[in-house]
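Subject: sequence -> structure tokens, single chain

Hey, anyone have a minute? Need the predicted structure for the following. Not urgent.
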Amino acid sequence: MSEEEIREEHRAEEFVKLCFEFFKHLTTLSTAGALVVLAVYRELAVGEWLLGLTLVLFGISILASVLSMMVCTALFSSSDFEPSERLLGWAMLVSAGSFVTGSESFMLFLAEWPRWLNLALIPVVSVALVWLVKTRPPFLRRSGSTSGRGEEQESE
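Reply:
Had a minute. Here:
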């Protein structure tokens, strides 16, 4: 193995470790969020659809995070399966996206706005978050970015 291959393998291992930590913390946050929603639901004793949506989204986040942690551990097992960065990226998007959308729906429930406004705001905020991730506007970029996308846009 060349030194470059060893460096790339080490970088991939570190990335998987960081992803595992990300999923671990997101699982904790989603579980805590679901418990808060259940406590509010129990106290209010009303069947609000936003609370149900919030619980479903937190559940998706927990499930996606736990499955992703299992995928991350496969790199360090004796199996031949190695998770790709693309697979882990999609897993992060699903986990974080469902957590953020669940948190958003819970905040909208607490705001007690009209139902039509809640229905309009959930997709609008979700689309805005996806746009921010995809386009990486200048205010979200780190200075001195070494990624190809950041350098292209900074030189314009």
